UniProtKB/TrEMBL annotation:
Top-level division of the source organism's lineage: Bacteria
GO CC aspect terms: cytoplasm
Official protein name in the record: Serine/threonine protein phosphatase
InterPro entries referenced in this protein's UniProt entry, alphabetically: Ap4A_hydrolase (IPR050126), Calcineurin-like_PHP (IPR004843), Metallo-depent_PP-like (IPR029052)
Region (Disordered) location: 1-27
Length: 258
C-alpha cells in the first residue's frame, strides 16, 4: 500500500499485536481517511519520512477528506525538538491537521513558568530540547543557572513555537474513534475525563478490557510493536530509542499500522 515505505531500508516492518476480533468494528465516516502519529520526541528525521509516506498515499488513494492527527510528545528525548516543531507548524498550514497535547509539552510549559523544575525536566529528556535551541547546561545547574537557562530558552524559542504549544488540544473525536495522548480513565464518560488522566494515565487504562464508548487511539506508553486491540490502539513504538515511528492509517473500519 505504502510504496514509498521502501525508501527507508533501515526501518523494520512491525506486525501489529491484535487481540481477538471485536464484535463491532469502529468506523470512520465515509470518505474520511485519518493518518495518526504519536510520541515523535524530537525525531525530525523520522517525521519527515512519515510525511512523505502520507503524501504518497494521499496522492495514490485520493481520499475525500484526509486528516492528520498528531497525539503529543513532540519534544524531549530525541535529537531535534526545534526542527520537529518547525515541521509540524509548517504542516499545520495545510489545514487538515489536528495537534494534541502530550505530557512533555505540559512539562516544557511548566518549566518556562517555574525554573525550579528545570533539573527534573532534564532527567526526562529536556536536555535534548535545550540543546536543539542552542543551550547547554552544566551537569548540576544551581538556582542562578536554572533561572538563566529558562530565560534563554524563552528567548530562543520562536513566537510561532510558543503559540503552537499554547493551541494544542487534549482530544479529537471522529466517527467511532477517540484520539488522545495517554488514554482515558475507565468508568468515566469521555466528556468528563480529567486532563491529568488524558496526559498521564497508564496501568488503569492499559489493563482495562471495557468498552470506553469509542475506540481509543493513543501513545504515551512505549510498546515493541503497535497494539491494535478490541478497545484501543497504542502506536507509541519509542521512536527516540528504536528508530521506529509508527503511522496508523484508518479508513472505514480498516486500520493499518506501519
Amino acid at each position: 500500500m505504502f510504496r514509498s515505505f521502501r525508501e527507508k531500508p533501515r526501518r523494520k516492518i512491525l506486525s501489529p499485536r491484535r487481540s481477538h476480533p471485536a464484535r463491532h468494528k469502529p468506523r470512520l465516516p465515509d470518505g474520511v481517511r485519518i493518518y495518526a502519529m504519536s510520541d515523535i520526541h524530537g525525531c525530525a528525521h523520522l517525521l519527515k519520512q512519515m510525511l512523505r509516506v502520507i503524501d504518497a498515499d494521499v496522492a495514490r488513494s485520493r481520499p475525500r477528506y484526509a486528516i492528520e492527527v498528531y497525539m503529543g510528545d513532540y519534544v524531549d528525548r530525541g535529537p531535534d525538538s526545534r526542527a520537529t516543531l518547525d515541521i509540524l507548524i509548517n504542516r499545520s498550514r495545510r489545514g487538515n491537521t489536528v495537534f494534541l497535547k502530550g505530557n512533555h509539552e505540559v512539562f516544557l510549559g511548566n518549566v518556562l513558568r517555574n525554573p525550579s523544575l528545570l533539573t527534573e525536566w532534564l532527567h526526562v529528556g529536556g536536555l535534548y530540547t535545550l540543546m536543539s535551541y542552542g543551550l547547554a547546561p552544566s551537569s548540576a545547574p544551581g538556582e542562578e543557572e536554572r533561572q538563566a537557562l529558562v530565560r534563554d530558552l524563552a528567548r530562543a524559542m520562536p513566537r510561532q513555537h510558543l503559540e503552537f504549544l499554547a493551541r494544542l488540544r487534549l482530544t479529537f473525536s471522529c466517527g467511532d474513534f477517540f484520539f488522545v495522548h495517554a488514554g482515558v480513565r475507565p468508568g468515566v464518560p469521555l466528556a468528563e475525563q480529567q486532563e491529568a488522566d488524558l496526559l498521564w494515565i497508564r496501568e488503569e487504562f492499559l489493563q482495562s478490557k471495557q468498552n470506553f464508548g469509542k475506540y481509543i487511539v493513543h501513545g504515551h506508553t512505549p510498546v515493541q510493536m503497535p497494539e491494535l486491540l478490541d478497545n484501543r490502539a497504542n502506536i507509541d513504538t519509542g521512536a527516540f530509542a528504536t528508530g521506529n515511528l509508527t503511522l496508523l492509517t484508518i479508513q472505514g473500519s480498516s486500520m493499518l499500522a506501519v
